[in-house]
Amino acid sequence: MKNKNLVITALFIFLAAGVFAQPGNMQQNKKSGGMFMNIPDLTEAQQTQLKEMRTLHMKEMLPLRNELKEKQAHLQTLQTADNPNMNEINALIDDLGAIKTKMAKKHAAFRQEVRKILTDDQRVYFDMHAGQMHKKMMKKKGPQGKMMNK
Predict the structure, then answer these.
(1) How do the domains of the chain map onto residue ranges?
(2) CA distance 129 to 45
(3) Rounded distance, CA 79 to CA 74, Å?
C-alpha cells in the first residue's frame, strides 16, 4: 500500500511539475525569445544566464526522460504478456516512480536556481506565472501527453 501511495504521489508531482522542464512549443519560444523572456526587465546578463541554465537543465533531464520512456515501454510489454509477472511489474512501477521523483527534484532545484538570479519584482512575476505554461501545454496535449489533432 505504501508503494502504491508513493507511486501515485510521484506521478502527481511529475505531472504537476515535470511539464515545466520540457522545452514546450519551440515556435512560441522563438517568437517570444524563450520561456523566460516574458519576465519583465530582464537584463542581457540575466537572459544569457537563464539560457545557459536552461540548456544545462535540459541536458540533465534528457537521460532521465529517455530512461523513463524505455521503462514505460517495458512496463507496457510486461502488462500485456500472456502470463504477466506481477513482481516484475511492481518493481518496474517502483523504478518509474523513483525516476519521476528524481526528475521532479531536479526541476524544483532548477526553479530555485532561476529564482536566485531574479530581482524581487521579477521573482514575483515568475512565481505567479509558473502554472501558465503547464496550462497551455495541457490544452495542446491530450491526457496521455500526446499532441491532439485539431
Answers:
(1) 42-117, 120-150
(2) 22
(3) 9
Architecture of the CATH domain 42-117: Up-down Bundle (1.20)
Report which of 25, 53, 55 is spatially closest to residue 118, judged by C-alpha positions: 53
Helix (H, G, I), strand (E, B) or coil at 8: helix
The number of C-alpha atoms within 13 Å of 132 and in the hemisphere containing its C-beta is: 9
Q: Using the structure block, give the residue that is written with the C-alpha cell 524544483.
A: 108
pLDDT band at 17 (very low <50, low <70, confident <90, very high): low
The per-residue pLDDT for range 90-131, each reduced to its tens digit, is 999 999 999 999 999 999 999 999 999 999 999 999 999 876
What average pLDDT does the chain have?
Answer: 80
Please state, in angstroms and rounded to a whole number, the distance separating the CA atoms of residues 39 and 32.
Answer: 11
